[in-house]
Amino acid sequence: MDKMVYIAASGAKQSLRGLELKANNLANANTTGFKSDFAQARSMQAFGEGLPTRVFTMQERPGSNMTSGGIVETGRDLDIAMSDKGWLTVQDASGNEAYTKVGTLNITPDGALMTSHGRQVVGEGGPIILPLPIEKIEFSEDGSIQVRPQGAPANFLEVVDRLKVIKANNSELEKGNDGLFRPKPELLENDICGFCDISNDVKVLSGTLEMSNVNPVHEMVDMISHQRQFELQVKLMKTAEEIDERHTQLLRIV
Fold it and tell me: Which residues are in the Flagellar basal body rod protein N-terminal domain (predicted)?
């Protein structure tokens, strides 16, 4: 009886986790550059004192859907999108390099180029700081940043830096809890990160954004499936309780 309750209780808990993951995907259906997460459930052996007779379920995120989202034109000078397999390099909270598809950029009063999520954009020589004040900014296909200083002639543009855009295969990156992508640990351990340098194959598309690759219909169907699984596990626990009560009644009769 306890095995039945153990499996049902752990299954209900993991079904809720899967529901949370799918709800997060659905909530980011309109988030620029968002990559949806996969959900996977598997059985795990529980080890401890005594014989390993208990098995529980575990919900995990094996990876993210790395397919490209749709490209939409915005006409905004500070909006960019990268071609397929192209990634923009930014700094994470620890100051280390990470990668993102978020191309909504802003300029701080200090001239720092930031994403809409507050990440410092990295260029060839490190974090990008633009020489203020400027009247216009343009991004070339190779990631070069051209600006026209305030008061300069209308046809004058000078290159001040270049975006550090890399080209990485889907199998080389993984998503962190902060939503940024990084090389997989095994690549870093073996010092294999040739794609971490600027790529000349990536094209930067100015005035456009890559949207989320979330399929709302698919996520809704998965949410319904996880909800039904949760209800099934709860019914199983109630059934176990009813069987236990009947056993108690039989013992009283005897």
Answer: 6-35
Whether the CB-CB separation of 166 and 194 falls below 8 Å is answered with no
pLDDT in tens, 229-241: 889 888 888 888 8
Distance, in Å, from the CA atom of 251 to the CA atom of 239, rounded to the nearest integer, reads: 19
Compute the distance between CA of residue 214 and CA of residue 216 in angstroms, rounded to an integer.
Answer: 6
CB atoms within 10 A of CB 237: 16
Residue 59 above 90 pLDDT? Answer: no
**C-beta of residue 76 within 8 angstroms of C-beta of residue 209:** no
61: CB partners within 8 A, 6+ apart: 21, 37, 38, 39, 40
- Beta-ladder partners of 242: none
Read off the DSSP letter of residue 33. T
What's the rounded Cα separation, in Å, for the pair 164 and 123? 5
Least confident stretch, 6-10, 30-34, 214-218, 228-232: 6-10
